């Protein structure tokens, strides 16, 4: 369902009685050359997104109904979307993924239709649902009915807004196989009643935002965690962040931490308890780097790291050497450059001289800092890299803020050098990108 054509196909699939509903609401959608399809296309669908249905209908109806008001257009979109979603629920034998996130239609937040949960066909369609994306301000009754049907959700992505309905707590309580729990919290009340119901089957937890009364005590029960991401602005969002310094996750491999004003001593104790199993660490530059102890703790407690995102102050070059000597399995490193952090010439010099297994280097430039290496310095780096034994093809990624003008790829001499070593096979991948690139920003 990526185009208006596919939307027209779905509308052509609607039974005549549903098309009549559209006609009664004066919703006329021209479907030239569209006969009733030979195949029941809706029955082949395994992923249903109300947001995408609304988005496609907005484009289609705007083209077909150019002279109606925004309010009527919005109403018509809701009517047609409801009938298409009804069609899906009644025709799909086994839905795998359901996305009920809101769609911003004409600058107004829309609630997706959820009355389909009462259809007899919903019990069959949703029985094997494995992935659910939704927000909390849906009726509690919807979540309760869903809890009677779906017991084997593997991935749950929640956006908690004003409150946590009891039905949502019921849905969490009956899950037997939940693996990935992704939750964004926005000033919710009674959130702890939900978090306490999380099963210990969870292996990946992503927690964003926060509110003043949330407790992290629930996390002590998640002993099977393999990936933990905590992304929030202030420590005050959690009552007992200190609980992290004593907890042990025997299977934890990936740690992503983004928090302003975080007490580094707390994180150091966490690494002391869990660092031996960690394979990836991503630390945001908001973390307080008034001292070098956290970076040295990574070197000391995390010897088997494969990927690392880190900030090294420009007067602490020796620390980067220590990290490479201690973490000899490192394959990818993101280094923050500019300002109070290392410049790229120093950073690349340490990488080429001390790393053993690095194949990917990501230079992340902060604020308005620009690439400062001269072409001759860049040439020297690649010559030295090509002389490394064993020789490793390099992926080099440069991350800038979008408003920077003089990037590495804006310099013709630099790009001639890059192209030269791509042709020689020394560079496997070269990319200049922004901070919103999901591939290189673990917090998106």
UniProtKB/TrEMBL annotation:
Q: Which domain of life is it from?
A: Eukaryota
SUPFAM superfamilies assigned: RNI-like
InterPro entries, sorted: LRR_dom_sf (IPR032675)
- What this protein is called in its record is F-box domain-containing protein
Q: Which organism is it from?
A: Rhizophagus clarus
């Amino acid at each position: 369902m990526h185009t208006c054509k596919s939307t027209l196909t779905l509308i052509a699939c609607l039974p005549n009685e549903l098309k009549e509903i559209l006609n009664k609401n004066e919703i006329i959608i021209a479907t030239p050359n569209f006969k009733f399809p030979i195949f029941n296309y809706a029955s082949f669908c395994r992923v249903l997104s109300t947001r995408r249905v609304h988005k496609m209908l907005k484009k289609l109806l705007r083209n077909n109904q150019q002279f109606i008001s925004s309010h009527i257009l919005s109403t018509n979109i809701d009517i047609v979307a409801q009938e298409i979603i009804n069609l899906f629920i009644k025709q799909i034998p086994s839905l795998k993924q359901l996305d009920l996130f809101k769609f911003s239609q004409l600058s107004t937040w829309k609630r997706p239709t959820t009355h389909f949960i009462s259809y007899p066909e919903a019990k069959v369609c949703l029985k094997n649902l494995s992935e659910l994306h939704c927000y909390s301000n849906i009726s509690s009754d919807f979540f309760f009915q869903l809890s009677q049907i779906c017991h084997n959700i593997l991935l749950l992505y929640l956006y908690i807004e004003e409150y946590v309905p009891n039905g949502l707590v019921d849905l969490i309580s009956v899950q037997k196989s939940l693996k990935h729990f992704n939750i964004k919290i926005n000033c919710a009340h009674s959130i702890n009643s939900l978090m306490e119901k999380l099963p210990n089957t969870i292996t990946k937890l992503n927690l964003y935002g926060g509110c003043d009364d949330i407790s992290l005590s629930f996390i002590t029960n998640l002993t099977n965690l393999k990936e933990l991401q905590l992304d929030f602005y202030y420590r005050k969002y959690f009552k007992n962040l200190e609980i992290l310094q004593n907890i042990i996750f025997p299977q934890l491999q990936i740690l992503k931490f983004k928090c302003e004003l975080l007490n580094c001593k707390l994180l150091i104790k966490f690494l002391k308890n869990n660092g031996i199993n960690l394979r990836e660490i991503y630390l945001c530059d908001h973390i307080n780097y008034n001292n070098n102890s956290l970076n040295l703790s990574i070197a000391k407690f995390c010897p088997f790291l494969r990927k690392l995102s880190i900030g090294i102050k420009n007067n602490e070059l020796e620390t980067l050497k220590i990290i490479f000597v201690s973490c000899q399995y490192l394959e990818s490193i993101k280094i923050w450059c500019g300002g109070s952090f290392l410049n790229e010439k120093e950073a690349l010099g340490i990488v080429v001289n001390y790393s053993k297994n690095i194949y990917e280097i990501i230079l992340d430039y902060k604020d308005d800092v620009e690439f400062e290496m001269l072409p001759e310095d860049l040439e020297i780096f690649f010559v030295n890299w090509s002389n490394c034994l064993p020789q490793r093809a390099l992926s080099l990624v440069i991350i800038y803020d979008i408003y920077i003008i003089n990037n590495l790829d804006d310099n013709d001499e630099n790009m001639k050098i890059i192209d030269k070593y791509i042709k020689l096979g020394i560079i496997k991948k070269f990319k200049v990108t922004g901070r919103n690139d999901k591939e290189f920003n673990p917090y998106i």
